[in-house]
């Protein structure tokens, strides 16, 4: 609100006051007193105020009970700025005539001039109480309420006044300013629009009108009004700042920059606008300059986390990751559930290769937004980089179920291959083979997967398949000497019947892809490879070795039996029965891990091998892995519905899960197909108990 000039003369003359009350001005004056009063009025008219004061004092000395004399003298004192004397005279007048509303209005006017707004409001309200018909007093009350920053009450009172005096433009301008102060810019714009359209030539308050337009996002109109404001008041820094903001929102960055620079030239320490100035510089790509403005702003407004967030953003762009992290974490102290900040913070840690910290924030984002595929992908990449391949694979697969993505597919293949090579390193050959096969299913041109699969097959003594995989790897990458050299060594060992697996312990694993776009690899035609055949299987020799092994097994010479079976495997590595027998020896020795590995190799060679599935289920049950054991036993009865002991095993598993109905059904199936009377009585007893 502009500094409103208050008329220092009395708002209502005492003569008017008396006229309104129906009392003649001279009704109680003696002729002598009346003559002095008239002389005082004449002196006042001639601006001879000292003489007027003297005449009134003399009149009061002759007639001290006439309130009109005190009112008149108070008005002259007020006119010359002698406010305390004026108030003393008004006080005397009120004693003599306590119901004179206009004296209270005059008192209120003096208090308002003195800045004593509470006292002014008391006086104006008293006048309204005494003379409610005098609606003009609403303007006095509204102005004081505005000065007291009681904008809501001021607005109500201005509107009451304007209902009666709608063309009072000063009051309407004051109302507009009150709306703006109450942060009701839309209503302020309505009032300013009325004022501007009514008399554009004499419109004055361009500055506040422009500011209100900026607040209501009417940026084009705001630019027009604010430029007029600056033409009239070039030193009005607030107008320049508002104009800069309007240009900024209109993406007229150079014009905005010009206004900010002019504002700083006028007020170099105007730090409150450095946040917006920094935002402009950031939008213009001037990230280093923006960062500097945010730092200056934070020195003076350390609690404004908006600046911390923006400083973090530009620092990330500048690859100043430590600064970015520090400021993002500052933001999270106040905005603990800001998903975007957590996501950006995770990205900063990821860029620093601090993968555990990145994963921590990825997890926090996923707690708040569980369907964020980008975050799941990035978390998978971080786990991939930490060689936590199983977890990475699960996430990659989850993402691909929802949305096809070339980069995620490539990462998934790399993770399959990396986990496969890790399993080869730790002699988990069956698991390794599964991962390599998954990789090849996704990318049939992945030479490293074929190479790994060759090593896995070697570990399982499946030499013919190992040869085939070596050849495919070499065909895809003939220039990789590692493949051809190792294949040559392998073939040499085959001919000498030495099939120990060579496992490199420090092989380079596939590089993790972290870019958004990966260029397509150029396809290379596979060169012709001269076929190298492995020696043919000598079935007679294999059978003889197995026979000897069986005799040693019956004699409980298990070490010898194991050696016989292993030699038989070298001759025929695809014999699922021999693999099963080796597994049985390890199972008897309670080495469930090795037993399970050989059972897996047996069903890998022959997926329809029911005995292999059954014995795998037994070792899984021994390891208390009941869900997997049930899957294996179920596979058995799918392959052979009359496999009685698979039903028996399923029944026992169901009992461990307190599933009586399932257990009962399987025990009955056991009796249906069982040909061994040894367990019949026991099973019948179990059925009897379950049916109770």
What does it look like?
With 692 residues, this protein is mainly alpha-helical. 72% of the residues lie in helices and 0% in strands. It contains 37 helices and no strands. The chain has helices at residues 14-20, 31-45, 49-62, 67-79, 83-96, 101-114, 117-130, 137-147, 151-164, 169-181, 185-198, 206-215, 219-232, 237-249, 253-266, 274-283, 287-300, 305-317, 321-334, 339-351, 355-368, 373-385, 389-402, 406-425, 429-442, 447-459, 463-476, 481-495, 539-554, 558-571, 576-588, 592-605, 610-622, 626-639, 644-656, 660-673, 680-690. Residues 2-27 and 497-537 have low confidence and may be disordered.
Q: Tell me about the largest β-sheet.
A: none
> What's the gyration radius in Å?
49 Å
- Tell me, what's the shape? elongated
Q: Based on DSSP secondary structure assignment, what is the total number of beta strands?
A: 0
- Give the low-pLDDT segments: 2-27, 497-537
Helical stretch tally:
37
Helix content: over 70%
Distance between the termini: 92 Å
The SS-based structural class is: mainly alpha
Mean pLDDT across all residues, rounded? 86
Strand fraction equals under 5%
Topology:
Elements: H1 14-20, H2 31-45, H3 49-62, H4 67-79, H5 83-96, H6 101-114, H7 117-130, H8 137-147, H9 151-164, H10 169-181, H11 185-198, H12 206-215, H13 219-232, H14 237-249, H15 253-266, H16 274-283, H17 287-300, H18 305-317, H19 321-334, H20 339-351, H21 355-368, H22 373-385, H23 389-402, H24 406-425, H25 429-442, H26 447-459, H27 463-476, H28 481-495, H29 539-554, H30 558-571, H31 576-588, H32 592-605, H33 610-622, H34 626-639, H35 644-656, H36 660-673, H37 680-690
Helix pairs in contact: 2-3, 3-4, 4-5, 5-6, 6-7, 7-8, 8-9, 9-10, 10-11, 11-12, 12-13, 12-14, 13-14, 14-15, 15-16, 16-17, 17-18, 18-19, 19-20, 20-21, 21-22, 22-23, 23-24, 24-25, 24-26, 25-26, 26-27, 27-28, 29-30, 30-31, 31-32, 31-33, 32-33, 33-34, 34-35, 35-36, 36-37
């Amino acid at each position: 609100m502009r500094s409103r000039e208050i008329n220092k003369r009395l708002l209502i003359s005492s003569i008017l006051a008396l006229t309104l009350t129906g009392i003649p001005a001279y009704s109680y004056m003696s002729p002598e007193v009346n003559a002095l009063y008239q002389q005082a009025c004449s002196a006042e008219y001639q601006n001879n105020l000292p003489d007027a004061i003297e005449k009134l004092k003399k009149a009061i000395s002759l007639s001290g009970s006439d309130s009109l004399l005190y009112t008149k003298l108070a008005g002259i004192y007020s006119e010359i700025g002698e406010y305390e004397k004026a108030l003393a005279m008004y006080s005397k007048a009120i004693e003599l005539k306590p119901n004179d509303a206009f004296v209270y209005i005059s008192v209120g006017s003096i208090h308002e001039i003195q800045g004593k707004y509470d006292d002014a409001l008391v006086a104006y309200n008293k006048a309204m109480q005494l003379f409610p018909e005098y609606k003009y007093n609403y303007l006095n009350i509204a102005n004081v309420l505005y000065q007291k920053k009681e904008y809501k009450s001021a607005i109500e009172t201005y509107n009451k006044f304007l209902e009666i005096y709608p063309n009072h433009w000063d009051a309407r301008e004051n109302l507009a300013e009150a709306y703006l102060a109450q942060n009701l810019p839309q209503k302020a714009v309505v009032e300013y629009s009325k004022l501007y359209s009514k008399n554009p030539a004499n419109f004055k308050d361009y500055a506040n009108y422009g500011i209100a337009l900026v607040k209501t996002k009417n940026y084009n109109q705001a630019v027009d009004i604010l430029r007029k404001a600056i033409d009239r008041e070039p030193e009005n820094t607030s107008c320049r700042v508002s104009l800069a903001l309007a240009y900024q929102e209109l993406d007229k960055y150079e014009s905005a920059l010009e206004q900010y620079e002019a504002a700083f030239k006028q007020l170099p320490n105007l730090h409150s606008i450095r946040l917006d100035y920094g935002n402009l510089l950031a939008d213009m790509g001037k990230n280093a300059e923006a960062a500097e403005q945010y730092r200056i702003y934070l020195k003076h407004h350390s609690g404004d986390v908006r600046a911390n967030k923006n400083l973090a953003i530009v620092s990330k762009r500048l690859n100043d990751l430590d600064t970015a992290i520090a400021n993002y974490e500052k933001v999270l102290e106040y905005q603990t559930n800001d998903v975007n900040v957590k996501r950006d913070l995770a990205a900063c840690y990821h860029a620093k290769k601090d993968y555990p910290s990145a994963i921590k924030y990825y997890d926090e984002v996923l707690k708040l937004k569980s369907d964020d595929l980008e975050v799941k992908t990035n978390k998978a990449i971080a786990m991939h980089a930490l060689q936590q391949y199983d977890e990475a694979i699960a996430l990659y697969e989850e993402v691909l179920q929802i949305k096809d993505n070339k980069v995620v597919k490539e990462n998934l293949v790399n993770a399959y291959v990396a986990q496969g090579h890790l399993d080869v390193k730790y002699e988990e050959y069956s698991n390794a083979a599964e991962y390599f096969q998954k990789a090849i299913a996704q990318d049939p041109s992945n030479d490293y997967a074929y190479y790994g699969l060759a090593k896995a097959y070697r570990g399982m003594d499946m030499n013919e398949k190992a040869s085939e995989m070596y050849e495919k790897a070499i065909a895809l990458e003939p220039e990789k000497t590692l493949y051809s050299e190792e294949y040559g060594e392998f073939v040499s060992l085959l001919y000498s019947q030495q099939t120990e697996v060579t496992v490199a312990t420090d092989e380079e694993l596939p590089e993790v892809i972290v870019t958004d776009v990966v260029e397509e690899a150029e396809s290379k035609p596979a060169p012709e490879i001269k076929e190298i055949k492995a020696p043919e299987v000598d079935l007679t020799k294999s059978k003889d070795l197995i026979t000897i092994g069986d005799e040693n097994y019956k004699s409980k010479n298990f070490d010898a039996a194991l050696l016989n079976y292993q030699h038989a495997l070298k001759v025929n590595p695809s014999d699922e029965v021999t693999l099963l027998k080796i597994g049985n020896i390890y199972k008897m020795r309670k080495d469930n891990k090795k037993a399970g590995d050989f059972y897996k190799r047996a069903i890998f060679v022959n997926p329809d091998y029911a005995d292999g599935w059954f014995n795998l289920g037994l070792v899984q049950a021994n390891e208390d892995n009941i869900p997997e054991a049930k899957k294996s036993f179920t596979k058995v009865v799918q392959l052979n519905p009359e496999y009685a002991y698979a039903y028996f095993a399923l029944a026992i598993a169901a009992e461990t899960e307190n599933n009586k109905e399932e257990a009962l059904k399987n025990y009955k199936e056991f009796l249906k197909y069982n040909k061994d009377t040894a367990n019949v009585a026991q099973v019948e007893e179990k059925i009897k108990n379950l049916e109770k």
